[in-house]
Predict the structure.
Amino acid sequence: MRNERRRFTLLALTLALALLLAACGGQPQPPATGGGTGGGAPSGGPPIKIGAIFDLTGATADVGTPYSKGQIAFIDWKNANGGVAGRQLQLISQDYAYEVPRAEELYTQFVTQDGVVVFSGWGTGDTEALKGKISEDKIPFISASYSASLANPAETPYNFLVAPTYSDQMIIAMKWALDDWKAKGKSGLPKFAYLINDSPFGRSPLADGTAFAQANGIETPLEVPSPRGATDLTPQLTQIRDYGANYVFLQNVSSPAALAIKNAKSLRLDVQFVCMNWCANELLIKLAGADAEGVVGAVPFSPEGEGARVALNFAKEKGIDYGGADSTFVQGWTAMSILVAGIERTLKDGKELTGENIKNTLETMGPIDTGGVTPPVVFSTTDHAGAKALRMFRVENGKWVAITDFISAR
Amino acid sequence: MQSGTFHTSYASDMAMRPFWIQRLRIALVLIALLAFPWFADRYWLNLANTIAIAAIGAIGLNILVGYTGQISIGHGGFLAVGAYTAGLMAVRLDMPMWITIPVASCFTALVGAFFGLPSVRLKGLYLAIATLAAQEIIIWLLTHGKLLGIGESLSLPRAANNLFGLPLSALGNNDFAFYWITVGFLILTVIFVSNLFRSRTGRAFVAIRDQDIAAQVIGVDLFRYKLLAFAASSFFAGLAGALTAHYRGIISWERFTIDTSILFLAMIIIGGLGSVSGSIYGAAFMTLLPALLSNLARAISGLVPDINTYLPYIQQGAFGLAIILFLIFEPEGIVKMWRNVKDYFRLWPFSY
């Protein structure tokens, strides 16, 4: 008995100690930088704090990881080149496992305790959940979610979209599909189907996509959600085969998309897969192998521009391992560079670095050049969807090759 | 030294907290609760609100699992029912929170009782699977049911957050204002549920848990009380869900998946099955653990530079580790640990 009691006391004490330690941890801390502070650069003031949440362990970790590496690498690169107006950038970031409550908690912590001035988010579900707080806190926010509902500054004045909205991506992909159908000399109209991530992210473009399809006389596309963590998508693909779809639009991340493409091969399903942003990357080729050949992708961040070469060379030089997902790494890098461009301009204009000033600068500064990764990004006071066009790519000999010039939705 | 507890009046025998030290503790806790928001920043207020809402849900689940012995892994689904009922009422009918919250709780109680019907014929693991079906059906209705006309997420108007015409924003920022609401509801829940188990109904629940056949023999109507337990449990799930909806201002089904149900089960197992205070400890523990771990990691990241890379894996492991350690060392949960600490000081220098 005695022994046992001592053990409980010990446990209780350990717990109390842990709580105490952690409570101390809650106080404002010396920096936990994502980026190393490139040694002895002249500093013209305190570091500029940027908050970020990444998905490194959750449902979208396959693309979340290279995206996060791209963002961290950009901050490191910028700091190594003297920072912004002599000030260093400090990235305060953490994994949130694609869980909305965790995102809310980290966002609140970074904004209220660390005092970050801008924020870089990730998923559709959590960006939408945060939009109210973002407007209240006046924190300019970019996210890896390009949901059209975030592009209207009248409702979400502090959300900025650095790529064409998911809706625009879908419409562009459908435009390409219609041209492709004609180019192949087939008669009549093709049938479309969606194979999507079972989440707000997956369903984001469907309403606008369907409206576009119907306006072009195409039958309402079939909507098939692929369950999270599925290991076999044969039932879903069988449904698509029975419907008789010619083009299947994949609004999903790489791993489930690769699974669908492989399953389709073994089913001998004769359809053209069209990947949206988050599966149109090198991971898909790595995972699906030879089966990925001929898959078409809507790639909003082209890994071929001059800006991409800077990013990829920096990664090579520093030995950053992003799992070979070049375009996703470049996407993370470019998204962060756009946000930082806003900060840089605000400081250059001699304004105080507040969320409101950065937002106004982003809205009025004119086109932001991304070195050919995207068409120049322009925000305005009435439209926060910065980019309107993207290029379609196709997998040829295990590589994404551009097959069109920049196409826009409207 | 006191050799035992002797009540000299019926009133003291019936009292819920007969000793001055217990009353003192309650007073201290109340003072701490009243003082906390004036000192805390929004990060801690956000955590406190999350804990208070989780605690209400956990107490609800404890009524069913801890007190009545009916396993349920559909709690997340019932939270969703509460959240969406409140949300839809606020959006479509422009109703304020003081109407939506009670209505959503009552409606969830009905839904819970409906999904509790299989409990009449099923026990143990079989019942667990039946409640799992409830979880999946509810989430499926929310994601694929175009009949409800819900998109991916539901934004509640800020104007709905008012009490009898007084807008909550008059109290201060959202986190501060909601602290009073969530903690107020938590206190009401604690008072109600603690007293429930001093009543005929509560005793019937416990009898069903301990031996359902014996309970039936002594005249407990199993059908009625099992459904009542499901209804009571879901009522608080609905309350927690409705509070989540109004506090967060936006809800999506992602918040109420099977993971949530399991998290709530973990809360009551770690806190203490069949204990109201245990549910609160469990909710606090499961909410604070990831937050504390990440703060800890940030505090020591100067010493261990790459800690942020490993943190996600440490966090995931910590949950599993916490549950295993509790099951090994104190299966009765945090509430028993607290009792052990109290006993140690009360009996010192003797061991018992």
Observations:
- The first strand of chain B starts at residue 153 and ends at 155.
